From TrEMBL:
The active site is at residues 85, 202, 204. It catalyses: N(2)-formyl-N(1)-(5-phospho-beta-D-ribosyl)glycinamide + L-glutamine + ATP + H2O = 2-formamido-N(1)-(5-O-phospho-beta-D-ribosyl)acetamidine + L-glutamate + ADP + phosphate + H(+); L-glutamine + H2O = L-glutamate + NH4(+). Its EC number is 6.3.5.3, 3.5.1.2. InterPro entries: Class_I_gatase-like, PRibForGlyAmidine_synth_PurQ. PANTHER family: PHOSPHORIBOSYLFORMYLGLYCINAMIDINE SYNTHASE SUBUNIT PURQ (PTHR47552:SF1). SMART domains: GATase_5. One of its GO terms (biological process) is 'de novo' IMP biosynthetic process. Its main location: cytoplasm. It comes from Haloplanus rubicundus. Part of the FGAM synthase complex composed of 1 PurL, 1 PurQ and 2 PurS subunits. This is Phosphoribosylformylglycinamidine synthase subunit PurQ. Pathway: Purine metabolism; IMP biosynthesis via de novo pathway; 5-amino-1-(5-phospho-D-ribosyl)imidazole from N(2)-formyl-N(1)-(5-phospho-D-ribosyl)glycinamide: step 1/2. It is found in: Cytoplasm. GO terms for cellular component: cytoplasm.
């Protein structure tokens, strides 16, 4: 399989993402957004960064580029799609996943290590974990506060589409453990299909053993699991 890691002007996690995926034995390559989605892509990663300099709203410009139309079609066909940080913002702006990521409650850019709790381990992206597992992952964003209206939020919860919630080191989901004011401490959600997911924390920065922790590796392994699911 080859995961296309889409690079926009301003993306800055595309190389890290390819490196982390390759480390896991998942074939990945960077694809410049103007070159279009390769027909043989068996996965799509929307990496972190500052596409279009976060102009207007983070992710809004990239979400309106032609390659995202191709990503939408691929996602509908069951191709696994993962958006991380700016990629999560793009995913929500593109309607691949519900809700929105907006300006942090602090109104500041926050770069720190947080804990998230696995809310649903029965998805391709979380299969490597057990429900309730606590992962240490880095965040680095200014617009990471998850918001959704009541109807959308209730649907996400009732359909078990919340993947990760910010928590403390013991796994307690509290306001104090919510770094950015996200509704319900939500850090990651599934799209309409469980092969599509977005998350604000950076699993690719917590995958290589020579970096600080490898708790994110299982999330990236979701590409293999999601593909297997789609082909089943
Ligand atoms: N690390 C990133 O992807 C940055 C996310 C985004 N551009 C923000 O600051 O909100």
């Amino acid at each position: 399989m080859t995961v296309a890691v889409i690079q926009f002007g301003g993306s800055n996690c595309d190389r890290d993402s390819v490196r982390a995926l390759s480390h896991l034995g998942i074939d990945a390559e960077r694809v410049w957004y103007e070159d279009g989605l390769p027909a043989d892509a068996t996965g799509v990663m929307l990496p972190g960064g500052f596409s279009y300099g976060d102009y207007l709203r983070a992710g809004v410009m990239a979400a309106r580029t032609p390659i995202i139309e191709a990503v939408r079609e691929a996602a509908a066909d069951g191709v696994p799609v993962l958006g991380v940080c700016n990629g999560a913002q793009i995913g929500c702006e593109a309607g691949l996943t519900p809700g929105a990521f907006t300006i942090n409650e602090s109104a500041r850019f926050q770069c720190e290590r947080v804990h998230v709790r696995v809310e649903n381990a029965d998805t391709p992206w979380t299969r490597a974990y057990d429900e309730g597992d606590v992962l240490a992952l880095p965040i680095a964003h200014g617009e990471g506060r998850f918001e959704a209206n009541d109807e959308t939020y209730d649907r996400l919860v009732s359909e078990d589409r919340v993947l990760l919630r910010y928590c403390d080191a013991q796994g307690q989901v509290t306001d104090d453990a919510n770094p950015n004011g996200s509704r319900g401490n939500v850090a990651g959600v599934l799209g309409d299909r469980e092969t599509v997911a977005v998350m604000m924390p950076h699993p690719e920065r917590a995958t290589l053993p020579d970096l600080d922790g490898t708790d994110g590796a299982g999330l990236l392994r979701g590409f293999e699991a999601a593909l297997a699911e789609a082909e089943a």
